[in-house]
Amino acid sequence: MALTAAFFSGRPTEEIAKSLLGTELIFHHEVGDVGGLIVETEAYLGDEDTAAHAFGHRQTHANRALFGAPGTLYFYTMRGLILMNLICQPAGTPQGILIRALQPTRGVDLMRQNRPREGVELTNGPAKLTAALGITDLRWNELALTAAPFLLQPRKNPIAIAQSPRIGVSQGSWHDRELRFFVAGNPYLSKSRKRDQDWTTMGWQA
DNA sequence: TAGACGATTGTCT
DNA sequence: GACAATCGTCTAC
């Protein structure tokens, strides 16, 4: 059964970030479905999180989606690249989860057209996966997940969930908080090392 | 394989 | 005009 808004409230954002691992993100493209299993996420905890866009309850036109209802989509650009977040917690509590990497499951040929790279390079980074899915603008920012052409379907369970400090967060008192969660051993992780990759199980339970 | 660095673009002050 | 939740390339080991 597909995830709905209820999935994104009623428990801590870190918990939700972990339970998204193994969920298939499906995007209904005009010319066919594309998608993959979520293998890496990061939690951004709003007001008090020095790395979050809403730190200090800062609200601008660009980050307004963070203050939306659970299940709201937050897309934003970074050096001309597009990153995708899912909003957790009730409206007014600006917490979100960044989708950092996917293991492709469907529409791989289409994704390769969108982003001509081979193997894990197709989707092993937050801006890489949006490019591969074919997301080229912010038209779905601030929309509810259920109102946009996206679908989240639970598929697999990780053998082990690992965590680490967030990537690209080097300043502020929260820089070393372990709010990045990933499927241990999955080859599609950003920053993954070859010797850590398990191509037999891909990090999933049988 | 790890680390450094330059490119590049939208947003905010 | 400064900066950023990144990417791709290059270099050294």
Observed structural traits:
206 residues, eight-stranded antiparallel beta sheet, globular, 11% helix, mainly beta, DNA-binding
Structure notes:
The chain has 3 helices and 8 strands; from the N terminus they run αβββββααβββ. β4 and β5 form a beta hairpin. The chain has 206 residues and is mainly β. The protein starts with 12 loop residues before the first helix and ends in a 23-residue tail after the last strand. The mean pLDDT is 96. The structure holds a DNA duplex (13 and 13 nucleotides).
How would you sum up the major sheet? 8 strands, antiparallel
**Into which percentage range does the β-strand content fall?**
25-35%
Low-confidence stretches: none
Number of helices: 3
Structural class: mainly beta
- Helices and strands, in order, run as HEEEEEHHEEE
Helix content: 10-25%
Radius of gyration: 16 Å
Mean pLDDT: 96
Report the count of strand segments.
Answer: 8
Describe the global form: globular
Our measurement of the CA-to-CA distance between the termini, rounded to an integer number of angstroms, reads: 20 Å
